Amino acid sequence: MQVKLATDRGFCFGVEDAIEIAEDAVNRHGAGEVVAFGPVIHNKQVVQRLEEAGLDQSGDLETVDPSKAVLIRSHGAGPETFEQAEKRGLNIVDATCVLVKRAQNVVKQLHEGGYHVVMIGDPNHPEVRGVIGYAPKVTVIDRGTDLATALPYRERLGIVAQTTHSPEHVANMIAEILKRPYREVKIVNTLCLEVTRRQEAAIALAKEVDVMFVLGGLHSANTKEVARLCIEAGGDTYHLETWDQFDPSMVEGKKIAGVTAGASTPEWVITEFTEKLEAM
Prior knowledge:
Blueprint: E1 2-5, H1 13-29, E2 34-36, H2 44-53, E3 55-56, E4 69-72, H3 79-87, E5 91-94, H4 98-112, E6 116-120, H5 126-131, E7 138-141, H6 147-150, E8 156-161, H7 167-178, E9 184-187, H8 193-206, E10 211-215, H9 221-232, E11 236-240, E12 256-261, H10 267-278
Parallel strand pairs: 1-12, 2-3, 2-4, 4-5, 6-7, 6-8, 8-9, 10-11, 10-12
């Protein structure tokens, strides 16, 4: 079978940095001596490899042994997490993506500048939960949100977005907000350019092939967004974690397959999938 790969795919620099920081922390402190508050990234295969290397990814801030180092994952955390860790005297290793860190700072600055902060994002995503902690009150909106009831009237709004959202979706949400009578709306672009490039490459490829495969964690927000965009582009699309989830019926009657991956998907997963698909 003919297989085409997206020009931009797989690990972004934020994920690479987080994995490198986690591995370095384990090497310095020893296996079992570094505790992460949740998965470092949203990829089960990478999480498993880090655990095999000695990283504990099931930490709880209240019960972690003070003698161990604690790792803040790539999605970041709210200021209260850092404050509690410091009060307990814990050694903090911060693997927060620099773009998530920027979004946190922007939210703080907007609040201090007198804006009511609005974040376009999934309220249940760990990045969003951490970012909104940097202002006393942030309104989170996303698909399906009734803006008439969700947005309180304030004369000055400051808008940011979850880093992994698509520019089109964020633009549509902002357009709806601008239909309301706010005196001033300040928009700060907090989208990740690396993720945007992967989205654009995936859309272009989806239009060229008979079937599209998007590889990455089933709970990965950026991977799910890529899959959604490929579906919107009009092609048959499957979101899989690895080759183990592949079924031959997915390519029945198809000649050309496209393969891409989310920003937290390692290259070895992409390579294995591509080679096995080509061999069919």
